[in-house]
Amino acid sequence: MKPKNAVPFRYRAVTLVLLWLIGGGTLLYGLPSSSRSQAPPVGAPGTNLGGETTPELRGAVWYDSLEAAPPLRDGDSLWVDTEWNRTDLSMTADLSDLVAEGDTAVALTTAGDGVYRLAFRIPEDNTRSDSPTIFIPFTVGGPDLADTTFNALQVCLSNTNPRVLNRELRPDRDTFRGNDILRLRVSWSGAVSSVDFDLRELDPTLEDVIPGTQVQGSQYEVEYRLPAGIADDTLRVFTTATDMDCGVTTDTLNLIVDSSELFPPVLVDWEVRSPVDSGGTPLPLTDGDTIRLWTQWDRDSLEIAADPFDLAPEDVTRPNIIPRGPGEFEIVYTLPSENAGDGDGRILRLIAEDPRGQFTIDTSVRFCISNLQPEYISSAFIDTPPVLKRGSDVTIESFWRSENGLPLAVSGDLSGLEPARTGLVAAEADTTYEGSDLRFVLEYKVLSTEERAPDGTDIPIRLFAEEIGGCGVAPNPPTLFVSLDTTPPDSLPPILNPLPEQTTADTILVTGFTTPEAFSAGISRQSQRLDLTSPVDSIDGSFSFRLGLLPNLENVIRVFAADSLGNQTRSSDPAFVTQVSSRAILFDSPFERGDEIRVSDPSGMTNLELAIHDLEGARVIEWSDPGPILEQSWIWDGVDADGDDLRQGYYLVRATWKDSQGKSQEKTEGLVLGN
């Protein structure tokens, strides 16, 4: 069991370097101490603790650790006793690298016998970034010497500790017996630098923790056999993770040891050793291959057998079982040279029985058999332009043959067209049969993106086919080639000639010029591309449109140029035209504070005045415009002339003006003021 007075393991896992820059820079890791209250040892016999002796830092004892400085967090108390060779010193610690704001010069107090104590509480709202190397310089003075600065201590600040994401225990149970083999795998958040497993409650003969084996990323595991004579008890396994700064987290797992419990054997791990590729990845099986399968079980003294019926139904040969170590068995089996057929998920059943009659049939080991690969017949482009551009549709018709009768999935690698698409693009396949061949149609649209291949010819599109329900992959993928042109005719957008700000006309002539290399010009209104094009003059680059206007609102007009493939330049700066066709006061209903009020008259307005009245007829606010103008608009925030908010309710909006004939006009609308 863990001693009651033991320091938590998370502190012993952190190494603090104390820098002694006097006398050659000797490294200190803290002086021996049996308890926190024990004063640190003073200098060796005969050492002068006063007078003219040069100050020397001899050691340090941390309040929260017997060995070294613990990781610090915002809100923690920093308390360390430093031992020096003089008793008449005065010193101040500079905590500016540890604390972001406030008074960072802290005086040390004397504890006698050359011991000077630094006591400081880090603010809860400290904004200093986490770091494993924060130095605390000491400024030391005395009766006979000038102030001298020493880089005395180094501490670590970490406010974000690792967090357990997942824990896997094989066998997946709480109760174990002596000689059982277990594997514990723990996944952590963040960038973990090391993980240690403390199994000393399980095995008191262990002198130290066991470093975890990194599986991948921040996932670590340990594999361990329980001692044969372990006593029945509830014992703990401590897993401690340290991040790249110095954040430390300890996770505890409780295990019950009960030698009377009976469990069926458990397959802890397995690995295909043959056939594999150069990287150790298992390969699909072909008839005549020899399988070498390594297995690990949770105990020894097992009778192991393997049933290959699903791999080779007609075979009567039994696999060979070879013991390889504690709980480890190798299974060797050769497929017949003539077998039943290809397929995926073929099970190699494993049977294990222990001396107490507990047995297991495990079906987790599965293989894929593939003797016949998909065969490529032909491919061709359908309704695809010879030169592609952004937005072009690519359609490929591809024919394949499945020799073993399994369905196929066909895909295309389009990274030659767009490097951002490095993976296979799943086929939208029409799997109609034509004779014995399978027909697939792959459809793709060239995206408008800067992450694309350079324009040019002979850009490859590779095709792949793989079995569904099998593992066969067509060898030597066929390749089709296309040409790509996504370069616009000019990087400069077209220029629009000036347009009137307001008009009563239903249509308007839009003219401008662009680069003469352009083939055509297009136009958009309210950010919607219209089905209108204009040829571009090859001499001066001019173009023109007769554009219909949307009535009683502001029309936003942009134009762009394009080459013969449709590659577009950037759009022009917007031009704004308001088409006025009715006499009206327009606003949203209900009216919200900050909305717009518009007044229009197609015959024109001069001396326009707009006023808001309450129901008693009082004028609360007004605006004016001398004109002449066809339409004017104002924003109203629901306030009066003094800027005070008006209450919600019903108001009158009254506009007065003179028309083009000089006659006075007036129009009134009711307005409901909301929030």
List the main descriptive attributes of the protein structure presented here.
about 675 residues, six-stranded antiparallel β-sheet, five-stranded mixed β-sheet, 1 helix, flat, disordered N terminus
Task: Characterise this structure.
- It is a single chain.
- This protein has 675 residues and is mainly beta.
- 1% of the residues lie in helices and 49% in strands.
- A hairpin with a 7-residue loop joins β1 and β2.
- It is flat, with a radius of gyration of 42 Å.
Which helices and strands occur, and which strands form pairs?
Layout: H1 9-12, E1 18-19, E2 27-28, E3 57-62, E4 77-84, E5 90-94, E6 105-107, E7 109-112, E8 115-121, E9 131-142, E10 145-157, E11 164-170, E12 175-176, E13 181-188, E14 192-198, E15 210-211, E16 213-216, E17 219-225, E18 233-243, E19 248-257, E20 267-274, E21 290-297, E22 303-307, E23 320-325, E24 328-334, E25 343-347, E26 349-353, E27 359-362, E28 366-369, E29 375-381, E30 387-388, E31 393-401, E32 408-413, E33 424-426, E34 433-434, E35 437-445, E36 456-467, E37 479-484, E38 495-496, E39 502-503, E40 507-513, E41 520-525, E42 528-535, E43 542-548, E44 553-562, E45 575-579, E46 584-586, E47 595-613, E48 619-625, E49 629-636, E50 649-658, E51 664-673
Parallel strand pairs: 12-19, 30-37, 39-45
Antiparallel strand pairs: 1-2, 3-4, 4-8, 5-6, 5-9, 7-8, 9-10, 11-13, 13-17, 14-15, 14-18, 16-17, 18-19, 20-21, 21-24, 22-26, 23-24, 25-28, 26-27, 29-31, 31-35, 32-33, 32-36, 34-35, 36-37, 38-40, 40-43, 41-42, 41-44, 44-45, 46-47, 47-48, 47-49, 47-50, 50-51
